[in-house]
Amino acid sequence: MREEPARPARIEVRDLKKHFPIQRPLQGGRGRAVKAVDGVSFEVGERETLALVGESGCGKTTTGRTILRLSEPSGGSVRYLRPGEGEPIDLFALPEREMRPLRKELQIVFQDPLASLDPRATAGDAIGEGIAIHRLAHGRGIEERVVELLGRVGLSPEKRERFPHELSGGERQRVAIARALALGPRFLVLDEPVSALDVSVQVQVLNLLEDLQAELGLSYLFIAHDLAVVRYLADRVAVMYCGRIVETGTAEEIFEDARHPYTQALLAAMPKLEPGSSRGSAPLPGEPPSPVDPPGGCPFHPRCPVAEARCREVVPSEARPGPRRGVVCHLAAGSGTS
Ligand code: SF4
User: Fold this and answer.
1) Are 105 and 187 in contact (CB under 8 A)?
2) Does 307 contact ligand 1 (Cβ within 6 A)?
3) 26 C-beta closer than 6 A to ligand 1
4) pTM (predicted TM-score)
5) Is the CB of residue 220 less than 8 Å from the CB of residue 190?
C-alpha cells in the first residue's frame, strides 16, 4: 500500500450516469431504465491508481467504458487534463472527430485477452496495428517499436510471431498491455486485468503494471471485484454498489478502517493473493439487488446486518470523515438523513 501524494487530477468524473432504457417492458416496465451508473464522481491523479471495486453487476465496468465514451453517457461530465496543459478537456462535450486523437492517450485493457485479441492476428500484428494506423512509426520502425514494447512487458522478440492461442494467459495479457502502451497512453482503464489469470501469474502482471506506472507516469482506473488484488496496487479505493459509490478513501483507510457495512462484508470475504488460498471466512450475505428494481432507501438494506428502520425508507447522504474520504451510510459519523 502506498502513500497518497497530492497530485493534480488527470481524470475528473462528476455525476456520471449511464441508464439503459428497458426495451421490452416486463411487469409494467414501460418507460423505465436500468440505472447501471447513477451519479458517480471521483478523480484519478497523475501516477495514481484508483481502484473501483464491487460485486459483478454493480456498474464498475460500465463506468470505465462510459468514461472513455465506448458507451455514450446519459449524464455527467469527464474532464481530462493532458500533460503540459493547464485546462482540462471536457470529453463528453467533444464531437467524435475531436475525441479520436485523444483516444491514443485514453486506453483500456480488458479482462479476457483471448476475447479482446484477434485470433487471426499475431502478437506483433496486434501491437503494431495501432502504431501503423496512428502513423507513430513507419516500415521497419513499426517492427522495432513492437520488439521494444514486447521487451517492456517482459516478452521475448520471438513472441511477435505467435497467435493468441499459442500464448499462455499471462503472455496474452502482456500482449494486450503492450498493445495499449503502443499508443502512448496517459490514462488506462484496467478492467479486471488479472481476474482470468492464475494467482501466481496475477502477481507478475500486477508487478508489471506497477513498474509501467512508475516508468511512464500512467494513471490507472483499476476495476476489480477482488479486494486482494486491489490491495496490491491501489492508492485509493472507491466501492460501488448498485450503480453508486458507497465508500471512498485511501487504500489504507479502506483496508484498515472500512466504515460502510458493504465494504466490511467485501473485506470479510477477501481471499489471500497466494497460490492455493481459499476465499475469506465470511461470504457476502444475500444477492445483489436487481438493477431494474432496486430497493428503496439504502439499496444495501436487505443485506445489511446493522440496518435500521430508517434504512428502508431514507436514502443515506454522504458523510465526509476525512479530506478525500466518503461514506454513504446513516451510521457513519456525521451522516445526514436526507
Ligand atoms: Fe446498512 Fe443502513 Fe448503512 Fe445502508 S444506511 S449500509 S442499510 S446501516
Assistant:
1) yes
2) yes
3) no
4) 0.90
5) yes
Measured over the CA atoms of residue 226, residue 66, residue 327 and residue 88, the dihedral's sign is positive
Q: Whose CA is nearest to atom 8 of ligand 1?
A: 307
- Closest Cα to atom 3, ligand 1: which residue? 329
- 184 phi/psi in degrees, rounded to 5: 70, 50
Q: What is the signed CA dihedral for 20, 11, 298, 242, rounded to 10 degrees? A: 40
Region 60-65 average pLDDT: 97
* C-alpha cell of residue 121: 492476428
Strand, helix or coil for residue 254: helix
| Whether the predicted pLDDT of 180 surpasses 60 | yes
pLDDT in tens, 90-108: 999 999 999 988 999 999 9
Mean pLDDT (the chain, rounded)? 89
Compute the 3-state secondary structure of the chain and give helix, strand, coil in percent, each to the nearest 5: 35, 20, 45
Atom number in ligand 1 closest to CA 310: 2
pLDDT for 234 equals 96
Quickly state the pLDDT bin for 28 (edges 50, 70, 90): low
Quick one: pLDDT at residue 272?
A: 64
Burial class (CB in 10 A: 0-12, 13-18, 19+), 6: exposed
Give the separation between CA 213 and CA 196, rounded to whole angstroms: 22
Three-class SS state of 23: coil
Give the up-direction half-sphere exposure of residue 306: CA atoms within 13 A in the CB hemisphere: 10
**pLDDT surpassing 90 at residue 114:** no
CB of 261 closer than 6 angstroms to any ligand 1 atom = yes
